[in-house]
């Protein structure tokens, strides 16, 4: 396994309490809320985390170092994460573990077909599930020796990270409502809102996505999404 992170310490070995110690995980994800959840999971597991918020940024990271684990969201602002998964699955040397990630269940097959070793379904809240998704696919020499502590812990990111995602969506909507913009905002907000258990916004984003998918008028649904986004920004500012 090639972990050529220049800051890596090759002598740090995993332990029962920190089973991912010594690994570098590159997370390619545009949501601050999802990244905060993964950051906390890596912190509790002993792994180092690097973040890229788009495909272009991920490629810049990969020109500098080769992580032990690559986790790629399927819906990114500059394209599908499946393209990066396919490239990295065919690279030599190959990254040790490649996982796809999405809030849409149907994309699991897309990730696996592109060459991913596994899939993380959002919202990612279980520390044990996160660790197992990686450990079950690591070579034996990278496994912690002896019995392993299985943490029964639910990870809850800082709500401020959700506010950052809402502000990001508001900024994009402020630049226009072209078809591609609406498609991205619907996908982005749908996943983020479901993770944050914001059911009203998740439902509005899903309705917008369905309207776009079926070629139906979407102006009213886009306006509803934009209104809910502004409402959440206003409420946060009031606090």
Automatic annotation (TrEMBL):
Tell me the GO BP annotations in alphabetical order. phosphorelay signal transduction system
Q: Which domain of life does the UniProt lineage start with?
A: Bacteria
Q: Taking every annotated instance into account, which residue ranges of this chain make up the domain Response regulatory?
A: 24-137
* Keyword terms, alphabetized: Phosphoprotein
Keyword Phosphoprotein listed:
yes
Keyword Phosphoprotein belongs to the record: yes
Q: Which SUPFAM superfamilies match?
A: CheY-like (SSF52172)
Locate the 4-aspartylphosphate modifications and list their residues: 73
Q: What is this protein called?
A: Response regulator receiver protein
């Amino acid at each position: 396994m090639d972990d050529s992170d220049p800051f890596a310490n090759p002598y740090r070995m995993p332990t029962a309490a920190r089973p991912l110690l010594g690994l570098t995980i590159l997370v390619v994800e545009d949501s601050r809320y999802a990244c905060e959840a993964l950051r906390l999971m890596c912190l509790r597991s002993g792994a180092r985390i690097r973040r890229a918020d788009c495909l272009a940024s991920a490629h810049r990271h990969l020109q500098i170092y080769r992580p032990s684990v690559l986790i790629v969201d399927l819906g990114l602002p500059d394209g599908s994460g499946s393209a990066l998964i396919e490239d990295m699955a065919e690279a030599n040397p190959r990254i040790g573990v490649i996982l796809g990630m999405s809030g849409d269940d149907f994309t699991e097959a897309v990730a696996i077909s592109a060459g991913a070793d596994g899939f993380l379904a959002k919202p990612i809240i279980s520390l044990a599930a996160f660790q197992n998704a990686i450990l079950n696919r690591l070579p034996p020499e990278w496994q912690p020796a002896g019995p392993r502590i299985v943490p029964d812990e639910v990870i809850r990111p800082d709500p401020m990270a959700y506010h950052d995602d809402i502000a990001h969506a508001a900024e994009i909507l402020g630049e226009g409502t072209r078809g591609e913009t609406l498609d991205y905002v619907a996908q982005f907000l749908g996943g983020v809102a479901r993770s944050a258990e914001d059911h009203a916004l998740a439902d509005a984003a899903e309705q917008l996505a369905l309207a776009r998918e079926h070629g139906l008028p979407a102006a009213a649904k886009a306006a509803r999404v934009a209104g809910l986004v502004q409402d959440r920004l206003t409420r946060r500012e009031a606090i």
